[in-house]
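To illustrate the input format used throughout this study, we show a single complete record. The first block contains the structure-token representation of the backbone; no residue identities are included at this stage. The design step must infer an amino acid for every position from geometry alone.
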């Protein structure tokens, strides 16, 4: 059904005249008559009857008017919302890693929610390989990764910034006083690492392998807070993004030991399918993250 017929129908009901409706809409009277006849043929009822010099809605016409008025009101509301790009409805699905979810993107999520109170935002944390796969499969509208710059023929990658990785130790640890540190120093230390598959754990393990260095032992946790607490309790050393441990360093809960993070370049980056249509909220979110 051509929605133009609905607008014409409503105007005829308003003016009670095919001629006046044609003048208002810029149609010939015959065009108005044809549109009303097509509606009557579609619904198999008579919609207007002539009373004197006016066209008046029949009972069936009044019932149809009730629904058409609702339909056109919703269409007008949709056009207004979308054109203004404010307070849009729908769902945005975002994948990211724990450290960025906890220490980076929260203000941007809050801002997006403030602009679109009725928007449903689903945020899910995971490992970078799983997030990329989920983005390719359409599980996420976009993902925010902390990894080497992603290269995939079906994904658009937007770097936000390079993240500094820091190695942390308990206060008064012997390595804290060093100006430079050889990776060989780690052979006598316990490393407390994130779960297997975490991007910067993988990169650190690759670096240690290249340098032929093996730590005394390794403890794994999935929780960043648990890792930081273990370090503070003198159970070992850990490597993590500076943004995730900045407050702990400032408070003296843990200390930083010299570690060349440039050997493990990781970037906060946005990835989404190249064929993905960016809705206004998604485009606004990306713009806020990259401005």
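Output of the design step:
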């Amino acid at each position: 059904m051509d929605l133009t017929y609905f607008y014409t129908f409503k105007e005829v009901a308003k003016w009670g005249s095919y001629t006046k409706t044609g003048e208002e809409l810029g149609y010939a009277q015959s065009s108005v008559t044809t549109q009303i006849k097509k509606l009557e043929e579609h619904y198999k009822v008579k919609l207007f009857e002539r009373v004197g010099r006016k066209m008046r809605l029949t009972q069936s016409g009044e019932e149809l008017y009730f629904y058409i008025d609702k339909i056109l009101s919703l269409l007008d509301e949709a056009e207004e919302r979308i054109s203004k790009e404010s307070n849009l409805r729908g769902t945005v699905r975002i994948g990211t890693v724990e450290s960025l979810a906890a220490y980076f993107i929260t203000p941007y999520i809050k801002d997006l929610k403030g602009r679109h109170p009725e928007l449903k935002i689903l945020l899910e944390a995971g490992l970078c390989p799983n997030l990329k796969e989920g983005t390719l499969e359409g599980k996420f509208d976009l993902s925010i990764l902390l990894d080497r710059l992603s290269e995939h023929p079906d994904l658009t990658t937007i770097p936000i910034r390079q993240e500094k990785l820091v190695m942390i130790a308990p206060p008064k640890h012997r390595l804290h006083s060093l100006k430079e540190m050889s990776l060989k120093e780690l052979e006598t230390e316990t490393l407390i690492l994130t779960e297997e598959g975490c991007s910067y754990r993988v990169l650190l393990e690759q670096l240690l392998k290249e340098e032929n260095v093996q730590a005394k032992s390794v403890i794994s946790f999935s929780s960043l807070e648990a890792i930081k607490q273990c370090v503070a309790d003198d159970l070992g050393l850990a490597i993590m993004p500076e943004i995730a441990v900045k407050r702990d360093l400032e408070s003296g809960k843990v200390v930083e030991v010299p570690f060349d993070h440039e050997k493990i370049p990781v970037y906060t980056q946005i990835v989404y399918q190249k064929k993905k249509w960016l809705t206004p909220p998604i485009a606004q979110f990306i713009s806020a993250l990259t401005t």
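Structural context for interpreting the output: The chain has three domains: 3-84, 91-162+267-290, 164-261. The longest strand covers residues 155-163.
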